[in-house]
Amino acid sequence: xxxxxxxxxxxxxxxxxxxxxxxxxxxxxxxxxxxxxxxxxxxxxxxxxxxxxxxxxxxxxxxxxxxxxxxxxxxxxxxxxxxxxxxxxxxxxxxxxxxxxxxxxxxxxxxxxxxxxxxxxxxxxxxxxxxxxxxxxxxxxxxxxxxxxxxxxxxxxxxxxxxxxxxxxxxxxxxxxxxxxxxxxxxxxxxxxxxxxxxxxxxxxxxxxxxxxxxxxxxxxxxxxxxxxxxxxxxxxxxxxxxxxxxxxxxxxxxxxxxxxxxxxxxxxxxxxxxxxxxxxxxxxxxxxxxxxxxxxxxxxxxxxxxxxxxxxxxxxxxxxxxxxxxxxxxxxxxxxxxxxxxxxxxxxxxxxxxxxxxxxxxxxxxxxxxxxxxxxxxxxxxxxxxxxxxxxxxxxxxxxxxxxxxxxxxxxxxxxxxxxxxxxxxxxxxxxxxxxxxxxxxxxxxxxxxxxxxxxxxxxxxxxxxxxxxxxxxxxxxxxxxxxxxxxxxxxxxxxxxxxxxxxxxxxxxxxxxxxxxxxxxxxxxxxxxxxxxxxxxxxxxxxxxxxxxxxxxxxxxxxxxxxxxxxxxxxxx
Length: 575
What we know:
Pathway: Carbohydrate metabolism; glyoxylate cycle; (S)-malate from isocitrate: step 2/2. Residues 25-87 form the Malate synthase N-terminal domain. Helix content is 46%, strand content 12%. The protein is built from 20 helices and 16 strands. A hairpin with a 2-residue loop joins strand 7 (189-195) and strand 8 (198-201).
């Protein structure tokens, strides 16, 4: 999907807004707002432009390397450990010690950078809140810029929110979680900001604006002299981690703070990255805050990596949990690698046997809620006993059962970095990490993929990136699993072997499933909502993605074109 200057984005109708004051070579095409203008100051944009100009070529090279690796996998090659970096994997080295402010990360809550969400998450009792510009956020101009305003106010300690419907005020408690921020991945552009005539790199915009406005206050109020802290998504190779390390070093130098002040946890959520964990930590060794098991995206990446391998058709996504050998091996190797290098090994979001998505409390069914909370506790008990130093929650209501699992097993220790080393995991092989998950494919699996994918995408187009569906929290990662799995089943006419009827997934069958699931969605959400929101557009995009000749790398790259609205600056001719 070409997102360069050749793509003609829609231009907003109506009178032209006031323009932002910008440095030379920078053009802001997003809607003008006086609060946004405080974020998009001339100096802040100059900082972002410096990052873009210095690292643009490195990012483009890394993306070309991704394409080359994809071509190799599509030709039958398998990912594996790199023989040229064996010395790094076998070497005796450690990363910088964790900052005292975030030594204890036993429970982390995640969510988009929405104002009420930020307050509730920081007040939740979690040790860390990961504020998300990535999979839990639809990256519209409004969402991104309001998110920057919200984070600035959160770091300053002034954030508040009044909910008119409930006449309720929200503000920060005295004790709050430590703030981590997740920018977008390297592959996503920011089409509302052009630098030297090209869309800026989305993650450099997210990182640059947040760092510029908040590094000093964060270090004083939250980081105890360290920070800011980040999560880094979608990394596939250590060269991409090296770019981030160089970005951090440049930012620290410009800000006049010590090298190693910035810390970042890398999500191991792509199959190629699991073979690069030592190398990723090595590149970030002065800035590392460990690794995290990004379970959902990892399954999506498994399907995407083997998209052209007919012998690696994955079963229904509801069957691909942490009990699968390749998932357990990935988790165990991550723990061993992190603790060997002296950093946190973070667990991921909960998998339930009913679906790969994040459980949230079930308010209208106490019995189902009690059962779900027990499953949360069991999953987290498995993580802490395996050696994870912390885990993720999608809702404040999940924090108590998580702590019930973690606290008795960790006691007063802030983490398990030096107490659980997992040396037996050193023997985990490429075969262990690549083993095909066991299970069957069913019509219900095809229907669930289709129903969830369309509903998530409809919400994403409307501006919501984290969507509660059927008492589970869906984000872009779970929609990606749905889309990629449907595509692969269609490509190879996969047999739905779990139904025992010999039915194969054909374009005709899929078209019927889409039609029937759209009818079901309309009945569930109601005709008024179905007509007024983006379900038909979402269905068109999702169906096109599932039936395309080639699998797009990311669903959101295509969908992004549908949410960009450019506002020309005063005096600029309309296209």
